[in-house]
């Protein structure tokens, strides 16, 4: 009985370890990508790129308003509410996109914002389903 309980806990930690390893691997690939981009660009262009990515990230954070974490919890509990959260995220993202377009007139930043929102929402669902 105790042996089975211990075995289940170890395998649960193994799954968590895979998630952590994938996160570290993804960050390492991202770091290599950004270091490569640094070698190709001028300093001012790289700073401007980071500025626009930062603005899009902030707009994504405001647009999601915690729906990713809620998606993870509700999906893991089997509650079918994904479409509602996706709609709320996309509505918030659309409002943010209009505001960003009025301020910056950059379509690439709007597309980046929408990709951030979709990928973060899908990541929350996949994490809730333990599809990693």
Could you describe the 3D structure shown?
- The chain is mainly alpha-helical and 132 residues long.
- It has 2 domains: 1-40; 42-132, no CATH class.
- The chain contains 5 helices and no strands.
- The chain is flat.
- The two termini are 29 Å apart.
What is the tally of helical segments? 5
The unreliable regions are none
Report the mean per-residue pLDDT as an integer: 89
Q: How would you classify the quaternary structure?
A: single chain
Task: Tell me the total number of β-strands.
Answer: 0
Quick summary of this structure?
This protein has 132 residues and is mainly alpha-helical.
Could you name the key traits of this structure?
flat, mainly alpha, 5 helices, 132 residues
Secondary structure elements and pairings:
Elements: H1 2-40, H2 43-64, H3 67-77, H4 82-104, H5 107-128
Helix pairs in contact: 2-4, 2-5, 3-4, 3-5, 4-5
């Amino acid at each position: 009985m105790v042996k089975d309980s211990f075995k289940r806990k170890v395998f649960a930690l193994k799954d968590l370890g895979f998630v952590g390893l994938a996160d570290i691997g993804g960050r390492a690939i991202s770091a290599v990508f950004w270091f490569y981009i640094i070698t190709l660009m001028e300093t001012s262009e790289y700073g401007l790129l980071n500025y626009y990515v930062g603005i899009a990230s902030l707009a994504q954070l405001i647009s999601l308003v915690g729906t990713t974490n809620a998606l993870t919890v509700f999906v893991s509990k089997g509650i079918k509410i994904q479409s509602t959260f996706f709609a709320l995220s996309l509505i918030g993202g659309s409002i943010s996109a209009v505001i960003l377009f009025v301020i910056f007139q950059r379509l690439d930043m709007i597309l980046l914002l929408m990709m951030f929102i979709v990928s973060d929402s899908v990541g929350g669902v996949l994490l809730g389903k333990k599809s990693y």
